[in-house]
Design brief:
about 35% helix; alpha/beta; Rossmann fold; about 25% strand; CRISPR-associated protein; single chain
């Protein structure tokens, strides 16, 4: 039996940390600024080789959030390197738990490595989870983008919502 789902009480944001902490932080900033999201919960999912950057990512998410007048609860999950199955299981579990708690779930794939992104998206799709947004900060080029979001020219970056672009959500 599937437990009943309560109406969404707020937003939860799952973000994947790979090689670039700047990509994670800038995508988060873009989502807050351009999409108006204000998550109550933020989950940062990374692989073991990048785990040392997780504390920097947590602090940056906290600072950016405070700049927008709120403070989310932030958690970190560390996966073994290149483990497609564990990535999918972890993200499916996080998203499912958030949905059961009544949150509307967004996933940011900008900084994630291919194996983590593929595992995440395949797992949530096969589980039939109601993911509201899948964000990706598209860059026309990656020259000199390892700096704060507001310092990167707007004409070379665009926050995309894969779910919106595909017509899956209104």
């Amino acid at each position: 039996m599937i437990p009943p789902v309560t109406p969404a009480s707020g937003d939860a944001y799952i973000t994947l940390l790979g090689r670039s902490t700047w990509a994670l932080v800038n995508a988060y900033h873009a989502v807050l600024r351009e999409k108006g999201l204000r998550p109550e919960q933020v989950a940062i999912v990374t692989e073991e080789p990048y785990a040392q950057e997780a504390s920097t990512a947590v602090e940056a998410v906290r600072i950016v959030s405070e700049g927008y007048g709120f403070v989310p609860a932030i958690g970190v999950d560390i996966l073994p390197e290149a483990d497609f199955i564990r990535a999918g299981q972890t993200i499916r579990s996080l998203a499912g738990d958030f949905i059961r708690q009544g949150f509307s779930v967004a996933i940011d794939i900008t900084s994630g490595r291919k194996v983590t992104v593929a595992g995440a998206l395949l797992a949530v799709s096969l589980a039939g989870l109601d993911i509201r947004h899948i964000y990706y900060l598209a860059m026309k080029n990656t020259d000199d983008v390892a700096k704060p979001y507001m310092m990167i020219p707007r004409q070379i970056q665009s926050i995309r919502d894969v779910m919106e672009d595909a017509g899956a959500k209104e």
